[in-house]
Amino acid sequence: MTFFKHRVFYENPRYMLFIHMVVNDMLQLTLAVTLHVVSYIFHSINVSVCCFLLLMAQVSTMNTPLNLAAMAIERYVAICNPLRHSQICTVRRTHILIAVIWAAGLAPPASDLFILLAMQPIRFFHSSLQCYSLNIFRSPYLVYKNQASNSVYLSCVGLTVMYTYIRVLFAAKAATTDEASAAKARNTILLHGVQFLMCMLSYVIPLLDFVLLGLFPAKRTVILFVNYLIAYVLPRFLSPIIYGVRDEKFRKHLKGYLFCKSAFQKIAPTNAHSLKIT
């Protein structure tokens, strides 16, 4: 509501990418929790329904690190090339970038589904199984393919974020003489890096699950649940705090909706006046 109520947010590429990440994470958590509840209550569901839920969950999971890389590039352009930021980072190009993120996130799970359709008979999709990825996509070829694709995504996103954050850090040091401002910039970048590393767990967690389940098969439920909390829930809990609540402009508007209407009315005229001047 804070985002869509204010033009200063929904016409700003930085906040557009931020809200896209929040909505995507909401979708991912909803699907993941649904899959967990279904697996505990029903134990087995129709394979076609399970494939759809797994596909959407995997796409939204892949989207988060990709969106994080896109936000890093936007900050890199804003700080290292500020004169051309408004020309490079437009609303239209941000919409195209979000579409590219979804296409890139869809590619690996969609290829898994096409391979599954080619390998399994039609009756398999009318049967019922326990709904988790390794139970549906059983082929060793798919396991190796996913490990390879995750490695490629991990490398590309990791190098992108590392390069942009290092350049932003050097630019912040060079452009700032105030030690307090420089420290704030370094702390912000450090938080971004920590959150990025936590999001990267989504790429390596399938391999970790495979290893731990091989070593401790009797602890399957505990292993999957703990890894799910660490790799999927915790990073998405931190994202709104790092990118939303810590942002002064966003926090100022958010407080008006959270605490009381009168407090927001005191803020609103000031913002309207500044927008009018702009």
From TrEMBL:
Q: Which SUPFAM superfamilies match?
A: Family A G protein-coupled receptor-like (SSF81321)
From which domain of life does this come? Answer: Eukaryota
Tell me where it resides. Membrane
**UniProt xrefs under PROSITE patterns:** G_PROTEIN_RECEP_F1_2 (PS50262)
Instruction: Give all residue intervals belonging to the G-protein coupled receptors family 1 profile domain.
Output: 1-243
Predominant location of this chain? Answer: membrane
Q: Where are the transmembrane segments?
A: 40-57, 96-119, 152-172, 193-216, 222-245
Q: What UniProt keywords are attached to this protein's entry?
A: Membrane, Transmembrane, Transmembrane helix
Q: Which PANTHER family match?
A: G_PROTEIN_RECEP_F1_2 DOMAIN-CONTAINING PROTEIN, ODORANT RECEPTOR-RELATED
This one is known as Odorant receptor 131-2-like
- The organism encoding this protein is Huso huso (Beluga)
Lineage here is:
Eukaryota, Metazoa, Chordata, Craniata, Vertebrata
